[in-house]
Automatic annotation (TrEMBL):
Belongs to the shikimate kinase family. The gene is aroK. Its EC number is 2.7.1.71. It comes from Limosilactobacillus ingluviei. Binds 1 Mg(2+) ion per subunit. This is Shikimate kinase.
Amino acid sequence: MELILIGFMGSGKTTVSQLLGQKYHLPVLDLDDEIVAQTGQSIPEIFAAGGEAHFRAIEHQVLAQVIDQPGILATGGGTPLREDNRALLKASHVPVVHLRATAAETKRRIGHDQNRPLAAKLDQTGLAKLKAARHAAYQACADFTIETNQLTPLEVAQAIEARLSLTVQP
Ligand SMILES: Nc1ncnc2c1ncn2[C@@H]1O[C@H](COP(=O)(O)OP(=O)(O)O)[C@@H](O)[C@H]1O
Ligand SMILES: O=C(O)C1=C[C@@H](OP(=O)(O)O)[C@@H](O)[C@H](O)C1
Ligand SMILES: [Mg+2]
């Protein structure tokens, strides 16, 4: 991978990875999409079948498979929770960018989306608590953090470019 995006659900990892991939003609790999492709099950189906532990085991296997592929990787919001996943991210030696949004903005962005089993039943306070509990894991592997609340996805992509001083021509 050339760039890895991490952060809480709704922070924009999937959206921004696609924008950067289009602009720089780089392949984009979304870990959730890859999990769905490999298992033939949706994310809610995987959680329903074996709970979060089952999903995390698959997520780890797929991360280990794809980490050395070229392109931009959008992780899932829980990917950095496992120490072995954080080690894989760090060992890739590519920039790891942490995208952030407030709980209120997160609720606005994903509140009606049923495709995220861990967020589906949480109100804004629940999202804030889960996000706070994960903060250290994100910080442990991030090279830098972008606050996305006031930014469009395109502006987030531009903020990442500015931090990386990407030189590849569009
Ligand atoms: N900077 C942003 N401003 C407003 N909406 C955003 C922004 N980034 C993402 N979104 C929206 O939030 C939702 C979740 O984005 P997504 O890229 O799937 O996040 P993630 O992959 O981090 O969970 C989508 O509807 C997306 O269009
Ligand atoms: O935060 C999490 O634990 C999860 C985030 C999701 O990815 P997004 O962050 O892209 O929504 C997906 O991997 C799964 O629903 C679990
Ligand atoms: Mg995503």
